[in-house]
């Protein structure tokens, strides 16, 4: 790989949740085992896909599995574009946004370039820029004393002073659950130099009704790229669907390296039906806020644990007692999988754990496991 000598030595892959598959078994020999675990270390939806999505998949399953999909997801791209007044030529599809990151970023930056990212933030970004592409990574540090709320002016200042070519942010951010409101996003764009590209990852935005998607901004600001996973809000994680909204000429140029059939037929069809049923998912998001409030009340009642405010389907928990790693290990003994956030930012130390919001029964198991873990042995 050209310039690979400049890549900071590091792990082969970014660390992710998903440890519950150790208990379920990746040979899928006994899928009933999934009922024994609470997989709150990943942020998948606690609900199933909309009934209309499942009905279509059930009715046409064999055909959907055995048939080649529309080559470049023409119908899905049209459905996405129509939602926010964009053109299909401004939409690039991928097998999840993860796949788009590995297709698009190598075409935007490389060794010698500087990329600014929020800190803390979803770990794949630091990994790809530092350990795969060999760029210089500049953290825009979010202040713990301000609840990790992003400050648009401070971020723009860091970007300007570092000479970064690209700013990557997650909004609402993970693992903090804190959103940057639209007005602040607009301030940020106004403060940034005209040459800086901005990748806004909106994986969790639809859970936060008060935060409008930045997708429409793409129509009049060629610097803006909005990455949208359909994994979480639309409950399609297993199918792998994501898309990027960006300036048409950028999409045209990066699409040359995007393989044909990058999203399978089952996934394309489910995604189109899911978009048609957006209102049903918004109702699930409203339920998620109620479930989150109950979960947080349960956790906050436990000694030495404190939930941070969240706008979305997960909660960051500060532990002032047991170190995060030990808390996570003890919860696992109860079949409850949580995320030790230490791997997401060195600034977290061993003080932060993240949990997904799950269905009510599972949330009770999470609280019970944390309570049992906190008993001094
Ligand atoms: C912030 C963020 N971006 C992207 C992804 C990857 O999502 P996808 O399933 O679309 O690859 C995740 C997955 O957890 C995430 O949390």
Give an account of the 3D structure.
The protein is an alpha/beta fold. It has 2 domains: 4-49 and 279-374, Alpha-Beta Complex (Aspartate Aminotransferase, domain 1); 51-277, 3-Layer(aba) Sandwich (Aspartate Aminotransferase, domain 2), CATH 3.40.640.10. Helix content is 37%, strand content 15%. The protein has 13 helices and 13 strands. The strands form 3 sheets. It has a 7-stranded mixed sheet, sandwiched between helices. A 4-stranded antiparallel sheet has the order 9-10-13-12, covered by helices on one side. Strand 3 (114-119), helix 6 (123-132) and strand 4 form a beta-alpha-beta unit. The radius of gyration is 20 Å and the shape is globular. It starts with 19 loop residues before the first helix and ends with a helix. The relative contact order is 0.16. The model is unreliable at 1-5 (pLDDT under 50). It binds pyridoxal-5'-phosphate.
What's the layout of helices and strands?
Layout: H1 20-24, E1 38-39, H2 51-59, H3 61-66, H4 74-83, E2 91-94, H5 97-108, E3 114-119, H6 123-132, E4 136-141, H7 152-162, E5 166-170, H8 182-191, E6 197-201, E7 224-229, E8 242-245, H9 248-255, H10 265-276, H11 278-300, E9 305-307, E10 314-319, H12 324-332, E11 336-337, E12 339-340, E13 352-356, H13 360-374
Parallel strand pairs: 1-11, 3-4, 3-5, 5-6, 6-7
Antiparallel strand pairs: 2-8, 7-8, 9-10, 10-13, 12-13
Helix pairs in contact: 2-10, 4-10, 5-6, 7-8, 11-13, 12-13
């Amino acid at each position: 790989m050209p310039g690979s000598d400049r890549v900071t030595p590091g792990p082969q892959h970014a660390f992710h949740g998903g440890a519950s598959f150790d208990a379920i078994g990746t040979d899928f020999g006994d899928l009933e085992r999934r009922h024994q675990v609470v997989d709150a270390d990943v942020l998948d939806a606690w609900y199933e896909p909309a009934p209309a999505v499942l009905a279509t998949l059930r009715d046409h399953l064999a055909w959907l599995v055995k048939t080649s999909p529309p080559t470049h997801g023409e119908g899905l791209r049209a459905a996405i574009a129509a939602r926010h007044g964009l053109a299909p030529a401004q939409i690039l599809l991928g097998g999840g946004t993860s796949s788009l990151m590995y297709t698009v970023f190598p075409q935007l930056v490389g060794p010698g370039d500087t990329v600014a990212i929020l800190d803390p933030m979803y770990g794949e970004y630091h990994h790809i820029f530092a350990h795969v592409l060999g760029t210089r990574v500049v953290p825009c540090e979010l202040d713990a004393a301000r609840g990790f709320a992003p400050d648009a002016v401070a971020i723009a200042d860091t970007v300007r002073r570092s000479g970064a070519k690209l700013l990557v942010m997650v909004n609402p951010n993970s693992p903090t659950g804190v959103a940057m409101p639209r007005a602040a996003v607009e301030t940020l764009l106004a403060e940034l130099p005209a040459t800086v590209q901005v990748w806004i990852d909106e994986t969790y935005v639809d859970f936060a009704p008060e935060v409008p998607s930045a997708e429409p901004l793409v129509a009049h600001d060629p610097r803006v790229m909005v990455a949208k996973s359909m994994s979480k809000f639309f409950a399609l994680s297993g199918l792998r669907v994501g898309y990027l909204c960006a300036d048409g000429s950028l999409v045209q140029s990066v699409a040359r390296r995007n393989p044909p059939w990058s999203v399978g037929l089952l996934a394309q069809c489910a995604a189109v039906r899911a978009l048609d049923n957006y209102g049903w998912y918004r109702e699930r998001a409203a339920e998620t806020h109620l479930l989150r409030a109950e979960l947080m009340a349960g956790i906050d009642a436990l000694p030495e644990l404190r939930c941070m405010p969240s706008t979305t389907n997960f909660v960051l928990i500060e532990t002032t007692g047991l170190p995060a790693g030990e808390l996570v290990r003890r919860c696992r003994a109860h079949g409850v999988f949580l995320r030790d956030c230490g791997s997401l930012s060195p600034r977290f130390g061993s003080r932060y754990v993240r949990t997904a919001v799950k269905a009510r029964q599972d949330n009770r198991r999470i609280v019970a496991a944390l309570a049992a873990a906190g008993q001094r042995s």
